[in-house]
Amino acid sequence: MGGAEVIERGTVTIKGTKIAEVGSADAIDISGASKVIDANNCVIMPGFCNSHTHIASNMLLRGLLEDVRLFEWLSTMWTLKKNFDPDTLYWASMNGLVEMVKSGITSFNEHFDAYAVEPQIEALKVIPMRATLGYGFADRGIYKSITDWSWKTLHGYGDLVAQHHHSNSGLLQIGLSPHATYSCGPEMYQLVREVADAHGVPIHTHLAEGPQENAYVQETYGTSPVRWLHSLGFLKPDVTAAHCTQLDDEDARILAETGTKIAHCPVCNAKLSSGTLHLKCVQHHGVTVGLATDGPASHNSLDMFQEMKFASIVHKDKTGDAEFLPTHQVLEMATAEGAKAMNRPETGQLARGMAADVIVVNLDTVHTMPVYDPVATLVYSSRADDVVHTIVAGRVLMENRVVAGIDEAEVRANFRAKAHALRTRSLG
Q: Taking the alpha carbons of 418, 422, 423, 428 in that order, is the dihedral positive or negative?
């Protein structure tokens, strides 16, 4: 990734938390290695960078409500979110981290929608992935009840930065996640910008996600969501804007001019009938675009292989151009470009000095053979359960499909019990 050539028979060496060498197997001496992983008939590649997701909350909502539009879906989701408790969120976080590790995702950008961040911080101490966790804020709409908490948390955000930012050996960062243009007013977006500038933390928001949002902003402010945030001085390179399906050419130009990044979630966008990002337009303007799963409530899995395949297919169909979004480009969006989109440029590539976030994907399967082109195989044929090993910051989190340091059966059992109890007390 990052423009590097595919090495047919290669070796990657890791020292500490960084990649030491990448090259031909014949050119690299591994005689002094303390551990050797034989990746014969496999691909060694950077771990996937999931630039927009909701792990804990959406784990608890997966499969609960299907076949509805965005705003109606959000309303039902909020019914359960109001009843979240820390223990339930902890086991949901654990289940989500396990799923991501087993899917080859090594870094993720979490947007918290008005629920507690701390249970996921605790879960990340057990399964130490590279993560940016964005505290979620809102002051209107279905999220109006968290208005006071949002203002209080924003005004005291320096304490959270001191406690959590760059913690967990630097793997954990925290950010600011104003929910969306229909749930946050101008004063809240402006304060988020001030806090981000003061503390040097990233911002992660939903933007131009669907027709209902566009209609709300047009009726309320007389413009588009992108133009409205730009008028507030909010858009800068530290912003990850999720979805962006409702952009016109001027919106795309503004995102490029301000350095705002896009987290592209084609599966959930299609499922909720939110539209499809005009990818050719934003690429023309030079906007950074990373691929993302969104949460498992609107996507139903944390599988970047599914996301890559669907992204390739839907954009070919929408543009009527079978040559658009070739396989190497969509793989870049899931790795190197995804890392840039979530403002974690230290990962996403196999190169000396980069973070040792590496996965090994088995290509010796009946559904991937005969493998004429490993990149095409990864994008169109591979699946999440083809990931054999997952390494984050030089630490093996999964080896031969077994996640280290946890009892997976216990995680599943606790999560299942907590989720069903939540549904019963919320919906009857």
A: positive
The residue ranges of DSSP E strands in 54-119, in sequence order, are: 105-111
DSSP 193-231: HHHHHHHT--EEEEES-SHHHHHHHHHHHSS-HHHHHHH
Q: What would the two tokens of residue 174 be?
A: 């925290």
Q: What is the pTM of this model?
A: 0.96
In a 3-state reduction of DSSP, which class is residue 155?
A: helix
**What does the alpha-carbon distance between residue 270 and residue 287 come to, in Å, rounded to a whole number?**
21
The single-letter code of the amino acid at 77 is M
Cα–Cα distance for residue pair 19/17, rounded to 1 Å:
7
Of the candidates 204, 318, 332, 340, which has an alpha carbon nearest to the alpha carbon of residue 269?
318
Which pair of tokens denotes residue 415? 């999560």
**360 near 37, Cβ under 8 Å?**
yes
Surface-to-core class of residue 280, CB atoms within 10 Å of its CB (0-12 exposed, 13-18 middle, 19+ buried) = middle
**Contact at 8 Å (CB) between 62 and 293?**
no
CA angle (32 as vertex; 30, 37 as ends), nearest 5: 50
Residue linked to tokens 């960084």:
18
Per-residue pLDDT of the chain (428 residues; tens, 9 = 90+): 888 889 999 999 999 999 999 999 999 999 999 999 999 999 999 999 999 999 988 888 888 777 877 777 777 777 778 888 999 999 999 999 999 999 999 999 999 976 789 999 999 999 999 999 999 999 998 889 899 999 999 999 999 999 999 999 999 999 999 999 999 999 999 999 999 999 999 999 999 999 999 999 999 999 999 999 999 999 999 999 999 999 999 999 999 999 999 999 999 999 888 999 999 999 999 999 999 999 887 888 999 999 999 999 999 999 999 999 999 999 999 999 999 999 999 999 999 999 999 999 999 999 999 999 999 999 999 999 999 999 999 999 999 999 999 999 999 999 999 999 998 988 87
Q: Which of 92, 140, 98, 142 is nearest to 117 (CA)?
A: 92
The span from the CA of 104 to the CA of 358, in Å, is 8
Tokens standing for 22? Answer: 């990448």
